[in-house]
Design a protein that fits this description.
about 500 residues, mainly alpha, 3 domains, 3-stranded mixed β-sheet, two-stranded parallel ribbon, 22 helices, 5 strands, elongated, membrane, transmembrane, transmembrane helix, DUF247_pln
């Protein structure tokens, strides 16, 4: 093996080591047209328009204004924490090498790999950028969560809070872009440098509340009480903020505790069955097994049918409409949770079954967030047989696109309470069509669900044919029955008059 090949192999293995793929800050994937297609149609879903986080877009002229804002944010954070800025920078500098290793082909503003000041100068330059970005993120999330109060809050500088609040839609979109992420270890290092526990605890709570608020924004009707998202930041830290939001939106939500945080309880299946008597309860063996095992996502739940063939290869499907599903007795229904992974076919005892999925409130910022969570899954995927939750957002996007064959289907989804937002029907259809078109994989969960739908059609041919006939001719049947009832009434009246005469 010559030196050129050896160096290429070494660089590839260093950049794409399997064990670290989930912790890297990825570029938006260009393979299979995902990056190129969406970058052309929706450039704001790939590159930031307002603020740069991390080195990939640092130094771009259109984002230069926010560099001064980030410096001011760093000052306010250090002032509130009673921490000398130099000490904070040193804490970030200590993890700079590890943080820089999370980025691919990182170059400084002058195009060199060391910032023009040698290795130490480049490291200090990189650490200073990380420090400002981390301070900005923490301050923004804290200011955002404090905006929910009914009274003015002076903890965050009023001018800064007003500026951030006025530009929240642009910031929310930019800080959730795949190429605009900050390694979470930098945030941990900065928080670890805070001398007291009060500010540190407040900031950590602000992060959890912000993630919960971003997650709730996807709902059509947000809950009155905001439940703060909790995770183990010591044993299971996220790779970055986008990964943390994806984790929140794809895992099974536990019950809310009295303190406004997530508890560890599981949903009550018996209550679910009582609310929906048409849904067949699981057999006793399956119910008992549900408490002893975990599904592919690691969440304890009652098992659904899982055709084995769907796990071995991708499925080929074409778009259908909600009306087509209703004709065979499958009713689209919002799921009880807001988790993107909460989708499935729940078979009824007689004719009517339910296909459940999380309802979605769509805006430009949330559309960008969805696409980038899906792109993150694409970057971390390794095979068709990945666990179902590994591509939950891809499956969710694919399912919504599958249900939209035309603008009338978008209107039907709105009427069913599954879709909401300011986008027009044509724009919504175009977005989901583009997203699904450029996804290299729809995910295992979508494949399993489509296999269940095909199995449903195969095993219920007689029932679905009968239901389809009644569904398509219901108006005619009602008219005929009404006419027959009227004729019977007239006949009985004539008999009564004849007997009396």
């Amino acid at each position: 093996m010559n030196k050129e090949v050896r160096d290429a192999v070494y660089k590839f293995e260093a950049d794409f080591e399997f064990s670290k793929m989930e912790t890297m800050i990825h570029r938006f994937p260009a393979g299979a047209g995902l990056g190129d297609g969406l970058r052309t149609r929706y450039p704001h879903m790939v590159a930031p328009r307002f603020v740069a986080i991390g080195p990939y877009h640092h130094g771009e002229k259109r984002l230069a204004k926010m560099e001064g804002v980030k410096s001011a944010a760093a000052y306010y954070v250090c002032l509130r924490a009673e921490l000398a800025p130099e000490m904070a920078r040193q804490a970030v500098l200590a993890v700079a090498d590890e943080a820089r290793g999370k980025y691919y082909d990182y170059e400084h503003d002058d195009g060199s790999s060391d910032g023009g000041g040698g290795e130490e100068g480049g490291k200090a330059c990189f650490a200073a950028m990380m420090f400002r970005d981390a301070c900005f993120l923490l301050l923004y999330m804290d200011a955002y969560t404090r905006s929910y109060g009914d009274t003015e809050d002076d903890v965050v500088n009023k001018s800064m809070r007003r500026f951030l609040f006025a530009n929240r839609e642009s910031i929310n979109s930019d800080i959730m872009l795949l190429e605009n992420q900050l390694p979470w270890l930098v945030v941990q290092a900065l928080l670890g440098a805070f001398p007291g526990d009060e500010v540190k605890t407040d900031m950590r709570r602000a992060v959890g509340t912000f993630v919960a608020a971003m997650g709730n924004s996807f709902r059509i009707s947000e809950p009155c009480k905001l439940v703060r998202y909790e995770w183990d930041d010591e044993r299971d830290p996220p790779a970055h903020l986008l990964a943390l939001l994806r984790r929140h939106k794809t895992e099974k939500p536990p019950e809310a505790g009295d303190d406004g945080t997530h508890g560890n309880g599981n949903g009550n299946h018996n209550a679910e069955t009582m609310r929906h008597p048409l849904i067949t309860p699981p057999p006793p063996a399956a119910t008992a097994a549900a408490g002893r095992r975990k599904d592919d996502d690691g969440d304890e739940e009652n098992p659904r049918p899982r055709p084995q063939a769907a796990a071995k290869a991708p499925v080929s499907v074409s778009a259908t409409s909600p009306a087509d599903l209703e004709q065979i007795g499958i009713k689209l229904t919002p799921s009880w949770t807001a988790s993107f992974s909460d989708m499935g076919l729940e078979k009824g005892r007689l004719f009517v079954s339910r296909l459940t999925l999380a309802p979605l409130s769509l805006s430009d910022a949330r559309a960008a967030c969805l696409v980038n969570m899906a792109a993150l899954e694409v970057c971390c995927a390794s095979r068709f047989g990945d666990r179902a939750g590994a591509a939950a957002v891809c499956s969710y996007l694919a399912l919504l696109a599958f249900l939209m064959a035309g603008p009338e289907d978008v209107r039907r989804l709105r009427a069913l309470g599954l879709l909401h937002g300011p986008r027009g029907d044509g724009d919504t259809l175009a977005f989901f069509s583009a997203a699904a078109e450029h996804l290299p994989s729809y995910g295992k969960r979508f494949a399993l669900l489509m296999a269940e739908v095909q199995e449903y059609k195969r095993t219920r041919r007689v029932r679905t044919a009968l239901y389809r006939w009644v569904h398509n001719h219901l108006a005619t049947v009602v008219k005929v029955v009404s006419i027959i009832a009227m004729l019977v009434g007239l006949y009985q009246g004539l008999i009564f008059l004849t007997r009396n005469s």
